[in-house]
Each structure stands twice: as C-alpha cells, then as structure tokens.
Write a structure and sequence with these properties.
The chain is of the alpha+beta class and 190 residues long. The protein contains three helices and six strands; from the N terminus they run ββββββααα.
Length: 190
Amino acid sequence: MTITAAMPTAKERPRRTRTKRQLSSRPALKLSQLFPSHMDLREPLKAVLVCEDCGTWCPITGMQSRIQKLVPHHTGKAGVADAIHCRGSNRRVEFDMTIVEWRQALADAHTETSSRQPTTVLPKAFSPRTDQTLRARAERTGAVRVADWNAVRKQVGDADEARTQVPHGDRPADGREVPLDTLHPVHPTR
C-alpha cells in the first residue's frame, strides 16, 4: 500500500498524565531539601528521583507542562510483592534549584564522601617468631597432635596426681568435729 497525499495523518496530541488522581494532597517535594545523590537531572526531560516514602527511583512526569509530579508507582518489587499504591505517587515536585546548582551540590557531596572513605589497610608485618609459629601450626596434622599428646600424657597425669595430694592433719574434709549441742548464751547482767 502506498501513501498518498489523500491519506489522513494523525495530529500530535497534547502530552498529559492520565491518572485517576491528578495531584497528591501532600506538600510538594522541593529539590533543594533532597540529597543530591537521590535525584538524576542529567537528562532534564527524563529526570528521576527517589521517592521519600518507599525509596524507589521514580520518573518525574510533566516536564514540559506547568506541574511536575512523581509518576504513580507501587511500594513492592514487581512480580514479587503485593501491588500497594505508594503514598508518594502523584506528589508535586518543585524545581527550586537549577541543574547547574544540582551538579555543584552533587560534586560537593561526592568530594565530602570520598574524603571519608578509608584507605587501603595493609596487614601488619609478622615478627619472625610469629611467622614461624603460624607456619608450624599450619603444618601440624591430627596425627602429629595425637603423637604430641601421647608423649606428654604421663607428665600431665603425674602433675594432676601431685595436685590432689594434701598434707595430713587438719584438712577441710577431716577438720574438727562440729558441735552438735545447742548453745544457749546467758547475758552477764542477769
């Protein structure tokens, strides 16, 4: 089928958001009050920011119209959680800063956070004795440990037996007899 001048063409329609609820009753989001890292204004017609309520990245719709607002979205992950409408949907967005100011704020935030990043921590060098001990411990197997224990078992047994021997006499178990008679003390003034 060929296209001729007599064929009708569709005219361009106005771009508008078609939602059931046109605007949220909540106060407008001001870009200057958000973190610079929570918005992306590199492409102004495709600007996105993080919803304060659910923490998801949402596009800003109506960039060429009078009112800019967040697109309607859900709180859960797609296909996993229930589709619960987010309270931040259709919330108005106020552009109270320019894109140049946003880029400067983002650069400042980046330099501030990069100065807080830790440097690479190098492990402390071992002393020769520690290195020798660690290597020897790594080389020991279960059979070597059993052989070492068998070599010192008699000495350990002798030490335990010597520890249990107590000299004769007043020992805690063989101490003096406890008196079984009840004592009634008499007050000296009576």
